[in-house]
C-alpha cells in the first residue's frame, strides 16, 4: 500500500460531507452510521469505507479524546474517483506510535494495521494546533 500523503489542495473535492461528533463511543458509532447514509446517497460502495470510518472514529475516541472537545468526520469524493476519509481529533500531541509529525505516513497499532490493509493510501497530518487528522483513501471501483 502506498502511504504517500496527498496535499489538501492537490485534489479538490467533488463531493464533501463533514460533521463534528462527540468524542464518545456513541459518537464513534454515529460516525459510522452517518458515513453509511452519506455514501449510500452518493452511490459510493460502502466497503471498505464503513470499516475504515469505524476504526478511525474509534481511535479518535480512544486515543484522541479531550474532555469537552469533539472530533470531526470528513468524507470527500475527489475528481479522480477517490474517497478520502478524514477523522480529526484535538490531540495532535498524541500521534500513532512511530509516526513522526507533519503530513507523513503513520505506522503501528492493530487497528492501523487494518487501515493499512483496507486503504489504498493513508497517513496522519498534524495541525492546525492542537489537532491531528488521520486520513485514508480508497479508489472507487467502477
From TrEMBL:
A Gene Ontology molecular function term of the record: ATP binding
InterPro entries on file: Anti-sigma-factor_SerPK, HATPase_C_sf, HATPase_dom
Span of domain Histidine kinase/HSP90-like ATPase: 26-125
Pfam families: HATPase_c_2 (PF13581)
Keyword annotations: ATP-binding, Kinase, Nucleotide-binding, Serine/threonine-protein kinase, Transferase
Region annotated Disordered, chain positions: 87-106
Highest taxon listed in the record's lineage: Bacteria
Name of the protein this chain belongs to: ATP-binding protein
Species name: Streptomyces broussonetiae
Amino acid at each position: 500500500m502506498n502511504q504517500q500523503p496527498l496535499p489538501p489542495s492537490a485534489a479538490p473535492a467533488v463531493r464533501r460531507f463533514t460533521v463534528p461528533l462527540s468524542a464518545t463511543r456513541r459518537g464513534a458509532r454515529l460516525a459510522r452510521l452517518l458515513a453509511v447514509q452519506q455514501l449510500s446517497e452518493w452511490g459510493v460502495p460502502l466497503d471498505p469505507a464503513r470499516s475504515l470510518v469505524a476504526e478511525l472514529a474509534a481511535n479518535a475516541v480512544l486515543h484522541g479524546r479531550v474532555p469537552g472537545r469533539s472530533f470531526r468526520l470528513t468524507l470527500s469524493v475527489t475528481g479522480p474517483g477517490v474517497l478520502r476519509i478524514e477523522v480529526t481529533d484535538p490531540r495532535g500531541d498524541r500521534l500513532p506510535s512511530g509516526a513522526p509529525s507533519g503530513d507523513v505516513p503513520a505506522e503501528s497499532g492493530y487497528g492501523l494495521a487494518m487501515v493499512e490493509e483496507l486503504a489504498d493510501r493513508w497517513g496522519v497530518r498534524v495541525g492546525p494546533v492542537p489537532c491531528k487528522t488521520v486520513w485514508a483513501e480508497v479508489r472507487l471501483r467502477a
